[in-house]
Amino acid sequence: MVPITASFTSEAPLHPRAAELLSTVFASGWADPAKIHMPSRKAAGLLNEARETFASIFGTRSDEIYFLGEPSLGFHLGINGLLQDHSTLFYSGTDRAPVHAIVDGRVNQGLAVTTDFTSPSGESDVLVYQSVNPETGIKQRHPDFTGQVFVDNTAYGVHTVLPENWSTAIWQSRSWQGPSGLGIFALRSGQSWRNPLPHNDPTKVPQTFSLPLALASTVALESFMKDEQSSRAKIAHLRSMATQYLQSEIGDVIVVGEKEEVQPSLLSIIVAGVDAERAVNDLSDKGFYVDSGSACMSSNLAPSHVLAAMGLPTTGNIRLTLHPNTTEESVEELLGHLKAVVNNQRNISQ
Questions:
Q1: Who's near 139: CB < 8 A, 6+ residues apart?
Q2: Mind listing the pLDDT tens digit for each residue in 231-241?
Q3: Residue 51 and residue 65: Cα distance in Å, rounded?
Q4: Are strands 88-90 and 112-114 parallel, antiparallel or unpaired?
Q5: Residue 262 DSSP class
Q6: Where are the domains of the chain?
Q7: How would you classify the pairing of strands 88-90 and 266-271?
Q8: CATH number belonging to domain 16-224
Q9: Superfamily of domain 225-346 in the CATH hierarchy
Q10: Residue 255: exposure state from Cβ atoms within 10 A (0-12, 13-18, ≥19)
Q11: Is the pLDDT reported for residue 348 higher than 70?
Q12: Per-residue pLDDT tens for 298-319?
């Protein structure tokens, strides 16, 4: 598989190592691991190995790891499974859309929610902790919270360490170039949690995930971590190079989170006087693909609720994701085209 270095979107292609093994894992992972015949026992063994790999990387026990066929379901399981009617849900305006949907549901029921993190909390209260924001790359400090903590690790959460007081957590396979349609859910052992889904059996989560995808995701995670660790300095250099160019050669650019600790692979900017949708299309016509708008809405060009919550302009937002295979040459070429696009919109003679 040839890397597409002109793609600066958050959605990267399936990791080449996982793609190579995909046919193999589909051939070996077809059996139901819950049954007792030989193919099923083999499938169960592969699944347990996958759990152990994820647990060792994420810092959990293997029996705390569950696979989900619908990643967004992890928000419902992780948050509503902890909440009680008398609980207060603590959340942020920069949280993902599934969190806001849960908040709206509680508000409609007349149940307590708050964005005031100075309010006192009890043991039954629940905090949504987002380790890294998917739109800005801003990292959050571990929360000092007396209640229960749901950890959203769905964006760049591979290298983040779970806080000591975590209760439930969710990751998604796409964030490490694994196959789509797979989420990893963690439920801390001994945690006070109830299955919020209608059910009549003792299983904690639906068993409708694809075992081959779970195995492919395991391979992708291991390979992605090696790639990113070896490329960490390069990615930081590319981010610094791009930031300097944006501010010196284009100007009137806000680098979101410039004074915060950020995930260096994500560069979110707001370019004054620019229609972001038009810029995205113009860059696409030249073979360069970037992101804009909300990272978690049905249409990603919808205005960003994250930027709005931060008090920043929601127009002119462009996001660049720097992948391990991104080259300095491709970044320089992108920036040159971006300058031309911006100048054209600002009616600046070139």
A1: 131, 132, 160, 260, 261, 262, 263
A2: 889 999 999 99
A3: 6
A4: parallel
A5: B
A6: 16-224, 225-346
A7: unpaired
A8: 3.40.640.10
A9: Aspartate Aminotransferase, domain 1 (3.90.1150.10)
A10: middle
A11: no
A12: 445 566 889 988 989 888 999 9
